[in-house]
Amino acid sequence: MKTILITGAGTGLGKELALAYAQEGNRIILVGRTRFFLEEVRTMIEKTDGSAISATCDIADSKSVEQLLSHLNEAEKIDQVINNAGVGYFGPLQEIPADRISHMIDTNVKGTIYVTKAILPTFLERNAGKIMNIISTAGLRGKVHETAYCASKFAIRGFTEALAKELANTSISVSGVYMGGMDTPFWDENHHVTDRSRLKSAKEVALDILERENEAELIIG
Ligand SMILES: NC(=O)c1ccc[n+]([C@@H]2O[C@H](COP(=O)([O-])OP(=O)(O)OC[C@H]3O[C@@H](n4cnc5c(N)ncnc54)[C@H](OP(=O)(O)O)[C@@H]3O)[C@@H](O)[C@H]2O)c1
User: Fold this and answer.
1) 4-24 pLDDT, tens digit each
2) Ligand 1, atom 38: nearest CA belongs to which residue?
3) In CATH, what is the architecture of 3-220?
């Protein structure tokens, strides 16, 4: 049994990853900002005799991340982190408000880096651990009306590749996951995707990830 911390675990892909990994007998630490959603997932996991705890945290706030991880590193032996939390703001660049760009970079880029940095000392101490970053095909190629979002995902691709090299002489693994569109609440508040029925389900993608979790670069078309 592994203990796996998943950010953005209350909805969408994070929720499906939490359910799928719990189903395999792992203990899940569910992290996100909205307690209600995290508790819903925790209850679902416990109903099937799985093991989970939840913790609210805004990953864009470095102090909150440090506090959470310092507590968790005392109480739990975390084996794996899945940096999944992310937000997306889309449209012609000139129409995306600066505060939304900031929020997206703070969450997608800095949040992922803060969580990884806070967990890394215990992984290094044990010379073990797995870091999986949920990126997007928007981290592989530029797309119309996704300028700032692509910038955030390219940044995390760079972070992932650089960290993998930095840790190459350790037993800590670092991987990046690049998937296309999924039908999740991610699309609830924007009109960037008009026909959600053509998108994959988050459950399908979560099961693909589980099956290929040992690959350093998972491209899920
Ligand atoms: N849906 C797609 O088509 C698609 C495609 C490729 C990649 N992705 C990526 O997949 C990941 C998961 O997205 P999703 O589609 O599952 O969307 P989602 O359902 O909106 O999930 C994102 C999760 O991140 C959490 N979150 C957002 N900001 C946070 C913060 N500052 N601190 C902590 N948690 C935060 C949200 O919960 P709270 O709001 O409660 O915090 C939410 O549960 C994202 O990184 C996204 O960029 C999505």
Assistant:
1) 999 999 999 999 999 999 999
2) 33
3) 3-Layer(aba) Sandwich (3.40)
